[in-house]
Amino acid sequence: MPRPKSDFETLYPYRLYEPEEILDPDLMYTVPEIARLLQGLDPDVELDPETEENLVRWTVPWLMTHTDDLVINDPVGDEPGYFGVESDERPAEEIPEDADE
Question: Where is this region: Disordered (predicted)?
């Protein structure tokens, strides 16, 4: 249910971090690790499953917003995908035409 702004003592500007602000350019991260970093947490900190699920849910739109700035590995089997900041030292490669086969 919507609430009047007057119900809140403090309002802050809504700000999305840029990938370079939270991701080390030399590392690749899973979505749950990025979710933790976006909250100012260590990427290895333990969270209860419900909290982690909520953080991941908020992280997916952030990833979609920054697709031009990020690279992803080619996951093998059930391994998770890892995301990182695209850099001149390690730019994204072209996706082969038969990648989905």
Answer: 71-101
